[in-house]
Amino acid sequence: MKPIRLILIPTLPGQPAPFMIVAADGGVLQRGVLELDPPERPEAMRTVAVCPGADVSIRWLELPAGGAAQLRAAAAWRLREDLAVTPDRVATVVGPPPGPDQPRLVAVVSHGLLQAWSDYLEALGVRADALVPDMLTLPEPEEADVLLAVTFGEAVALRGRQFAATVQPDLVDLVAADRRVAAVQDPAAVERALATAAQFPAINLFDNGVRDVTVLRGGWRRAMGLAAALVVSPLVLIAASAVRDDGVARRLDAGTVAAIVAAEPDLARQPDPVAALRARAAVAPPPGGVTGAAAALFTAVEGVEGAELDMLSAGADEGVRATLSHPTWSDMKAIDQRMVAAGMTVTETATLEDNGRVVSDISIGARP
Fold first, then answer.
1. Contact 299, 174 (CB under 8 A)
2. What are phi and psi of 183, to 5 degrees?
3. Angle ∠(150,313,294) on CA atoms, nearest 5
4. Which of 148, 163, 205, 279 qualifies as a cystine partner to 131, CB 3.0-4.6 A?
5. What's the pLDDT tens digit per position in 124-166?
6. Per the confidence metrics, is the pTM higher than 0.70?
7. Could you tell me the strand order of the sheet in which 17-22 lies?
8. Closest CA to 152 of 56, 47, 293, 23
9. Using CA atoms, how far apart are residues 200 and 26, in angstroms rounded to an integer?
């Protein structure tokens, strides 16, 4: 086996990418950082990229026998009610067969992010043969009640028996539930796991049956830039509020506006980019994204007897929204308390009585 290059794609755009080159025996031959737009392309070799797992949904499903396209179609059909977006906006990827009568590993990720990651790697001067989410670089633990945990940037990758997810640190306990979290803090152990993932990727997100997806040049910066804008936006909004209180909001620093527009080019067309960013941040997914919001909401609903989740959706213009049905009007207070404890807020947008039950439309956001 020839050496393999493994690259860690950063969460925020514009950052260089750490890499290492793994030998056939699993040893590390070289470590370093790849810069964007290098004067010369790095040496050509098999390359495996690791992407932020918070943007990838992982499941294990019982699927019928069939070819690759049939398996993807079957997995997409099984997940049709769980998707927060229309199926045409996501890629469904099925992993290799683990063994007879074993469920198949299935990953779901948006086409836009796949293209953004591909374009980012091209900006580094490389082309990846495989793309794997960070939580699947961890080995599956032997104990059924254990979750292995490794920190990648500001997120925590979790791996259990037929379970994998990447979440914000404050959601780890919520997602773990009654399982024990075993943090892998030894850098050598993390490096060994990455080396194994480079040689034997658990899944390849590029193996999704879609070819020739076209976006504007630099699309990776726009797709990945939203995360950067939302990280900065609370500070921008606080600063803008202070300036407005002093009566000089109209003289908002041009550099701040330029930074916002650089992260989200479409805001350049808005009369007030800061106000537009505020509106976008108001409907942005809470910490942990849609996956984190769904996990928190499922837990909150299960804690209220007779409550049911009827619908969960997410969109750029509406944020994370859900429809709940519950026996009494006071049930929403209990659900709200549980969501606040998980670091999120619930806003009731509509409530009515239907056939003896209360139906509530809500939106979910980050707790201020």
1. yes
2. -75, 130
3. 35
4. 205
5. 999 999 999 999 999 999 999 999 999 998 899 999 999 999 9
6. no
7. 28-34, 17-22, 4-8, 46-51, 130-133
8. 56
9. 11
